[in-house]
Amino acid sequence: MLADVTRAKALRICWLALAGCGRLGFSPAGAGGDAGTDAELDALDGAPDAYVPPTGPFGPATMLAGLGAPGSNDDPSMTPDLLEVFFESDRGGGAGAGDLYAATRGSPTGAFSAPVNLGMLNTAGDDVTPQVTSDGLTLLFSSRRAGAVGTAPSKDLYLSTRATKAAAWSAPVHIAASRTGDDVSPSLSADGLHLYFVSQASSEDIFLASRATPTSPWGMATVVPGLDTGAEETGPSINTTETFIVFASTRAPSAGGSDLWFARRASPADPWGPPQPLTELNTAGEETDPWLSPDERTIVFARGNNLFIATR
């Protein structure tokens, strides 16, 4: 058995060496490569490959086709297959100052259908910063509606669920991690145990609430060390392993008032490294409200009054 494992590891090394020379048509997992090849090698040596984050800058940002409209369009979030987008807009015909919308498309590079107002989730107040979970079945957002923790009118965090992507959304449920000020931009970890969000109780900082199980009560939310400054930090979004985070900040140096930033760490138990600007995406205008795909290869964000996407 040991000999078989040794031969399997040698085969993997040889296979990757050939791939690195441009042979065998190899491309990394998650980038459209041959998943079956990796699976066969994993079966031989008894262990899946460790997660390897993509490297290099994002490509040029392009506007998400089909979503533009008069007014403001903000806070985009997508399902990991990139076929469904959720966002906030103050376009005409909504229930309040800001409403939640959704749109779908047939392929990851196609144009979106006409956005649909998520009327069952919206109120006459602000309903903003939607974030869909990686399974596409839970939508977290911020809303200024009755029942807020803080002094009314205050924005609190809510969630809604659906049984399938074709099913209707449930009545929104208040998230008890909400603080006493305006709370926005919720981002839930893949295991459902960590909730990142922005609280505006004093200044706009990124907070983290944790719980023991997906059905346990949330603990007290605290500021995430290493990410807060005297400036505003908004729109946190994390990858599957909670080792990469993107957010918007007005900290210096800023190219246009609010820029996109990122930070990395070795594991969820480690502190975040120093935040760095996403210079390839920042402009003299404002970039805000980023959403990061679980595999770190796609980012969507707001620039001006429109929504943009970039990949790597």
Can you count the helices?
A: 2
Largest sheet: 4 strands, antiparallel
Low-confidence stretches: 1-44
What is the fold named in CATH at topology level of the largest domain? Neuraminidase
Radius of gyration from the alpha-carbon trace, in angstroms? 21 Å
Strand fraction band? Answer: 25-35%
* Structural class by sheet pairing and helices: mainly beta
Task: Give the CA-CA distance, first to last residue.
Answer: 40 Å
- The CATH class of the largest domain, by name, is Mainly Beta
Can you tell me the CATH superfamily of the largest domain? TolB, C-terminal domain
The number of distinct structural domains comes to 2
By CATH, the architecture of the largest domain is named: 6 Propeller
Please supply descriptive tags for the structure shown above.
mainly beta, disordered N terminus, four-stranded antiparallel β-sheet, 312 residues, 20 strands, 10% helix, Neuraminidase, 2 domains
